[in-house]
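Annex B. Sample input.
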Amino acid sequence: MEEYPGATVHYVDEGEDTGDIIFQDRVNIPIGTKSPERLDQLVGKLGVSLILKALNAIELGHAPRVKQPMESPTSRARNLHLDEHKTVIDWENWPVERVWHVLRGTELWLNAIPQPSGVFRGQRWTIDNYDACSRDTDIPGKIYRIHRRKYVAAAGGRIFLSIDFRIKRMILGFVKHA
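Annex B, continued. Sample output.
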């Protein structure tokens, strides 16, 4: 959910993510970047380059060892429990651009909005563009339809949705609910 996330390569010790830091760095993720591209930037480019740099430094015998603070200044990365998905977005206080950025970056896995139902059960929303506008009658986080397009309301605007239809998902959706 950050625009400037990072990666850390560290030694493994008895704790979880507590070993001495070898290298770490951050990368700019442009607003609205979708999950696959975000992961490519973080893992494929930043993460791999840090690991190669660390392996080279270890092999040459001059890899740094920076102690991690007892209290981390950043929150630990972890998988969210399914019941936490709906609490990730602060619908009342986050501006539409921030909500859009988070939804686009997590559209493949986050269930912060109700997924399609009926004949489209099992499909996922594709997060399209957003429109900053005053929609005083809309409830943030609720899905609406305007001019045959669906959107989710957010503070200060709306985020348009479309369905990424896949026949395999449709079949699996019906099998799960049968």
